[in-house]
Amino acid sequence: WMDHHDRIESILDRLDPAVEIRRFDLSRIGPKGKGDWWPAWGFPSEVPLDAPLVILENAPLTALQRMRSTDGTRLDLALDAWVRAGGHLLIVGGPPSLEQYGGSPLEALMGFSPASDPKHFETRTRRPIRGGGSDDLFVERLHAGRVTTATVRLQAGRKPFLLDQAVGRGRVTTLLSGAQGGFRKDGGEPAEE
Questions:
Q1: Could you tell me if 41 and 29 are in contact, meaning their C-beta atoms sit under 8 angstroms apart?
Q2: What percent of the chain shows pLDDT beyond 90?
Q3: CA torsion 69→72→73→76, rounded to 10°?
Q4: Are 78 and 109 spatial neighbours (Cβ–Cβ below 8 Å)?
Q5: CA 42 to chain centre
Q6: How far is CA 141 from the centre of its chain?
Q7: CA–CA dist 119, 115 (Å, integer)
Q8: pTM: predicted TM-score of the whole model, two decimal places
Q9: Which of 17, 134, 147, 154 has the fewest beta carbons closer than 10 A?
Q10: pLDDT tens, 70-92?
Q11: Between the CA of residue 192 and those of 129, 133, 181, 187, 188, what are the distances in Å?
């Protein structure tokens, strides 16, 4: 999967039985807020899409457009074909990511039209997660936008939080928050009894 943080990796590392994981990190080149995203260390620029699940965690569109699948197709386009052929794409959105996906193949795959202005994500508002079986979990940052074709599986406050949809023979699951500490019990500490 492709990301520039390690939250998902810490979850996957705990799987029993263990699964093979191939990670492709993304790095910013240039000044903060103005730089562009590239595959870390300039490699790999070619990504094999031979796994049943691909996770994009905080993956900026500009980096995905620079990367290629093993057949030479631009990665954002290759992911579309891969999902339709039966792959499962998990998109975990933190900064910068979903606000860049508008108008791209990823927007249609998500079934969600993201707002292009990241200020909505940057504004902290405590929203309880609804439908998750726990009353003490909340999220502080959400990507704004409009659900188009996806099914809302969980809400944070009254806003969509977890989306899911079938696409061709595959699936796309989108988590509209990815900020570290975004969903937690009372500030990350166990709730007091």
A1: no
A2: 30
A3: 40
A4: no
A5: 22
A6: 13
A7: 9
A8: 0.79
A9: 17
A10: 999 999 999 999 999 999 999 98
A11: 19, 18, 19, 12, 12
